[in-house]
Structure formats: C-alpha cells, structure tokens
Design brief:
This protein has 21 residues and is mostly helical. The protein has one helix and no strands.
Length: 21
C-alpha cells in the first residue's frame, strides 16, 4: 500500500484490487 496513492496509483490499485477480489 502506498502512503499517498496518486490518481494513477489509485486507479491501478483499484483495478488490481478488483482483479484480485
């Protein structure tokens, strides 16, 4: 988890989370 997820990071994290979940 990034301390300060920027827009790109947040989008990537959301996609990764959705793919994982």
């Amino acid at each position: 988890m990034c301390n300060i997820p920027d827009l790109n990071g947040l989008r990537t994290f959301r996609v990764f989370f959705r793919a994982t979940f």
